[in-house]
Amino acid sequence: QDSAELQRLRAWTASQLEQLWPALLSRITGGQVRECHGDLHLGNIVWFAGQPKLFDGIEFDADLRWIDTMSEIAFPIMALERHGAHDLAYGFLNRYLELTGDYAGVAVLDFYRMYRAMVRAKIAILRLGQTMDAATSLRLADYRRYIAYGLALTQERRPLLLITHGFSGSGKSRLAAQLAGPMAAIRIRSDIERKRLAKGSTANGAPELYGPAMTKRTYQRLLLTAQQLLATGQSVILDATFLRHADRLAAHAIVLDSGADFLILDVQAPIPLLKERIGQRNAEGTDPSDATLAVLTNQMAWAEPLGPHELNVSITVDASDTPRLAGLLQQIGQRRNR
User: Of 62, 65, 63, which is closest to residue 54 (Cα–Cα)?
Assistant: First the structure.
């Protein structure tokens, strides 16, 4: 009775494999195929002494553990999503991407999520055939949940590009991080990509981190990465100040070809609070942002406010207090459904 659904999954997988073959080969040559755990479902992870511990990795066959790193992380992501924990799944994915910069790998993530889901569906069926007892209906339901998950992956998605707007210290980064999980969005943070670019710079001497040249390169990186992610059907949050009209216009332009929705999250806070937050995080030294009070002063001098057309696609947030996340998510949903 499931043959039609299974054929649909087979056809989707074959089509994806054909389309993604060049990308999969490039990941081999690019060093993304490595010796991994190989079987990283949630049953092989235990929380112990305040840390997640991985066990029961595939030791008996090197071919099964030398895999694409995106296949490795697709397993726990798929399992978390299957349990309805989308916020945890995307929290894990976003942290992985921040650390590795492997945003190009998202192009093959759905393919690997499907693969991992079908592995678990097959295991459920194998167990179903081994015993006929009170657990039979549970195993069959488990199998069908994996099939339903796979079918959801084949559906076309209308992604959202959400850009933040606000001065350094406004709290936009914290808000973007809180929204990414519930929105099932990939968050790209300018402070991290700016440093990634600076670290890889071949120019003589250290580049000025917040200078015009590095800022231009950073926004180019953000927009190009967002465009590639939107093309895969993936929603994106660009976490940056976006104080210049030209940068906001360029962000809006990339959704035209992708069919994505576009919103601006206008995060506001009083100037004294901005200065207090910047001073505090500089003293702590734990935040990726190195923006100083001088950077803030410079931002306020050349910032270009949102225009009338931009206000039509913006949501204003008063970040002087802790925003209500549920209410903000509801606003985003309502604006998308207009």
Answer: 65
